[in-house]
Each structure stands twice: as C-alpha cells, then as structure tokens.
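cron nightly-structures :: item 1 of 1
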Amino acid sequence: MNITIDGKICQAEYGEFILAIAKRNDIHIPTLCHNDALPGQASCRLCIVDIVENGRNKVVTACVYPVTKEIEVITNSPKILNMRKTILMLLAARVPANEHLNKLIAEYSVSPVQRFASDPGEQCILCGLCVKACETVGLAAISTVSRGITKKVSTPYDEPSLSCIGCGACAQVCPTGAIKIVAAGKSRTIWNKNFELIKCEECGKYFATREQLEYINTKLGLADEDTLRLCEDCKTALVCEKFKNLYAANS
C-alpha cells in the first residue's frame, strides 16, 4: 500500500510503523526514546505526527502507530511543531543541561523555563529505554522505581544488582548519556558494581566482563567459539580472514 508523508508518496507494509516508513524515505521525525533494535516506547512523545484518516485529523506517535490503510501523514504542521516545543520545554525543565537535548531545544527554538526547580546534574528523562534493553538481554537488572518527582531508574534498593553482567547495553541505548560506565585498566564500574574485564586473546585489549562472556556462553553455547574471547575489532579481522581464505580456496 501507499501512504503520503509530507506530500511524498511512500510504500508501506501492512502493520509497519510510521517512523520506520519515514526513515526509509529520508523523512526526518525527531526521537529521543527510540532505538531500531528495540520495540517502540512512545515515552518521549517527540515523534508525534498529524495523520488524516477518513477525513479526520488526529495526533499519534510515529514510533508505535501501525499503518493499516492509506493515510496522509504530516510531520511538521504548526500544531505539531508547537506540541513538540511544549514537550521539549518540559523535558528541559527536568534535564536542564544536556548536550543531546540541547540540540533539539536549539532546533525548535525553545526558550528556557525558569519557574520549575530542577537538579542541575539530572540527565535522565525517564524514557525507559535502558530498562527495555536490559529486559531484552534477558536480565532485568534495572527498573523504574518510586513515583512522582522521586521516580528514577535504579537497581533493586539502589544496591549492586546480582543480575547485572556489566554489558553496558543500557548505557549504549541511553539517548541522553545519563548512564555512566567507568572503565579503568582491567575493571569496569556501572550501577555501583565493579567488574573484572577480560583481555582479548589477539590484541590484548580489555573488552568485556567475565560475567558477560559467561552469560553469552550460557545463552548461546559458544564455549568453543574461537571469537568469544576476541574484541570486536579482532572478531571482524578474523571473519574477514576466514572469508578471504574461503574465497581463495574456491578460486
């Protein structure tokens, strides 16, 4: 089927989300809480768009709205732009000094709001992407805790989590860089838990925690896999070498 986004006719699969269709057609829709590797969150609400369906307009979040019929999508109407400005204003009130958020604030010319008291060191927008990433890995070492103005992402009782393997998936997907990983020599610290790092058997670089490799082995059974104890660069080099040898053998 075809849908129209900002006047451009775009092909769409039944059930495909508007955001994915827009990305494929190089149409920009801003996001903070979206990651292509994870299901849509619709937490930050920045990806709101206006759709015309059966002659009626309604505002939806592009990351979780599935296309089931031919519709018209408007990503930058005055109404949508004003709503995004309000969303950014509220996010900035919670996170007043964040370089990732400030880029969007500048893009949408959002004026700073002074009437809300905020923690100048706060970086988390409570989008929940880190929690979803940890759940997807299969660990659930972190979650959102408490309510209202005290709501936050943390480990159980703010103690080092027994489930955490120090993989850093939560930090990788965090849109504002709120989750910090401290790496020093052969150790890594995240969520107040210290991990011993394993050295790459090829180049000697420390690259993964012992718990992380043990978890991969348990889940995937890769104890004898020759790439398990190699860093990403050396894994890539090894795979390339294997393909080169395979090509040479078949030439």
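cron nightly-structures :: done
The chain has a mean pLDDT of 92.
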